[in-house]
Amino acid sequence: MEFLQGILGNEIGLVVWTLLKIIAIVAPMMIAVAYLTYAERKVIGYMQIRIGPNRVGPLGLLQPLADGIKLLMKEIILPAESSKGLFLLAPVLAIGPALAAWAVIPFTDKLVLANINASLLYILALSSIGVYGIIVAGWAGNSKYSFLGAMRSAAQIVSYELAMGFALVGVLMVSSSLNLVDIVNSQAQGRAGGSIFSWNWLPLFPLFIVYLISGVAETNRAPFDVAEGESEIVAGFHVEYSGMAFAVFFLAEYANMILVSALTSLLFLGGWLSPFPASWGPLGAGGFFWLAAKMAFVLFCFLWFRATFPRYRYDQIMRLGWKVFIPVTLVWILVLGAWMMTPLSLWK
Amino acid sequence: MDITTVIFYILSAVLLFAAVRVVTAKNPVHAVLYLVLAFFTSAGHWLLLQSEFLAITLVLVYVGAVMVLFLFVVMMLDINVEKLREGFWRNLPVAATVALIMAFEMVLILTNQHTGLGEFKAAAPLAADASNVKVLGRLLYTTYLLPFELAAVVLLLAMVAAIGLTMRSRKDTKVVDPADQVKIRRNDRVRIVKMQAEKNVEAADAAESGEQQA
Hints:
The structure holds 2 protein chains of 2 kinds. By secondary structure, chain A is mainly alpha-helical.
């Protein structure tokens, strides 16, 4: 950084340095997204007793590249009756927040692009903007099916955001910070300090489950994928999209999945902390490896859910969000508040 | 001119443009989206004033929740813009007078020496690790506890009232109770009938030939 500031002057040097860091986060993200689609097809393939993609490259490893090239080559069709500007803006609105949220995600306690105080709030705010991409896409396409998909998805995302927000309230109560680095560090402390039992998933177990399921619902993944609902409304909000414009929605969905898995690992599964005691040498030391392993586990759960559960009916989704999750989180926050005031508190 | 000032002018230009377009856009959906842009830019202004909590909350509450519901409603309306514009010239004098009075009042307040708003000082720079959230939380739950709780109660009341006004139990609704559905056992729905798997062949033949003759 000093080198760049020496050449380009203080402020421009800082901007260039930050841009380089952004590229260092976004480029691996895109590769991760591509290979998540591959992993999804492989995992679901094996769960359905078939082997998934296996023709392009060894073990089918080049399949995501082939898919990418195919989508790039295809024509982007603009429907005649669509609202052109918004039609093209919608994919950008979908992927922008999904990528911008990564600015505050810490990879280890030192490695973070912007270590801001209110990082959890920032993430909540950005993930709530993501819904615009879907709504605008559904409306701009000027098709009944895409509009229905957008309406469903908007209602679903707004409902589950509440449960998700309440689950996060519990996390920030016990770690008394909105900063993601502090939240992870505080999970190494407490009564059962430094072991897998001091991580937030155990004392906040109901909130953990609510957060995980709301995360699936927020990303519009099966079994909550009524926004797409192939059997009822063809492909939902992106029914009018083709080629790269469609691919951007696809990218946004998978980037959001990775984001939710990263957040679940950071907030509830101890982030980069190692599950082993510190006396075990290299295995006991925390690091990016552990965060990646936890994210991979959560992502595997996402794929597993998709292969296992049939799609929810729309009214059941709404009932689960409003009548089950929100009361559960409210009660657990109350229990947590009382628990923290007693001598039995784990977080002193 | 330092970089903060440059950012301020860029944000202000975008904000003014978006605000004007909210009023002039022909399509209501476009107008709502411009309003979203306006909120977003004013959140940027708040960030420049070092109040990150307010900025993020503005995005979270207004952009993320309120405007989504707004958009939801506006998209479902079939608004005839021509009809809305019919009375434009007739109402223009009244609207212009109101706007002028409002602008005059604003100028009066902003330039008055007694209010002191004319020479509004820039906020003192805060330490890099100063947390807006912590200070706000402490103030809300100590000094301003009662007003804060009062506001919460008023909001709750408004919510209950809104739900109470719109909720009616329809007779023809096909809503199902999941608890009832889960309680159903096989015997409630299906009756297993035991019957003979084989027929007596001779008797069946006799019946068949009887049918043919008749």
